[in-house]
């Protein structure tokens, strides 16, 4: 049987390894810009996801009504994802344009090694983002996560990243996503236990 904790460790290693390898071949300039793109997209999403969440229902009508209202469960998370991905695409295209203009310069080995270093930082940043949502969710106490050998390291990166995030963002995620999800999980667990007892009796 496959150990889920081992898979989690493998995913963390794969994210960082792929980022480093890609960065090595792309070089320092491209990867430095890429890391800046990821950071700016994340900072922009944290800062503007609420405004985007308010705009989307007005632009798309009832199809986006789930993004508004105090009782929205996934509104904050969806607004953040849309804002983050949108900024990532826009800034990524700008990065491609700048990289294209710089392609006439030969990429040296020092440039590749520096690129790999920035790729390492980017991989750590991606893992930190994913881990941040995990440690803010009920899954943080799951045995698969707690038994993963790399989870303490990933959690420490996430906690460092959390220090740069406004408290109202984490509170919004907890209120609109984490708390309702946890309540739903607990309710379903109670229902399953009740049905199991009834079937036994």
TrEMBL record:
InterPro entries: Colicin-V_CvpA, CvpA-like. The chain crosses the membrane at residues 6-25, 32-49, 73-101, 113-135. GO terms for cellular component: membrane. One of its GO terms (biological process) is toxin biosynthetic process. It comes from the Bacteria. The keyword Chaperone does not apply. It is a multi-pass membrane protein. This is Colicin V production protein. Its main location: membrane. It is found in: Membrane. It comes from Ignatzschineria ureiclastica. Keywords: Membrane, Transmembrane, Transmembrane helix. The keyword tRNA-binding does not apply.
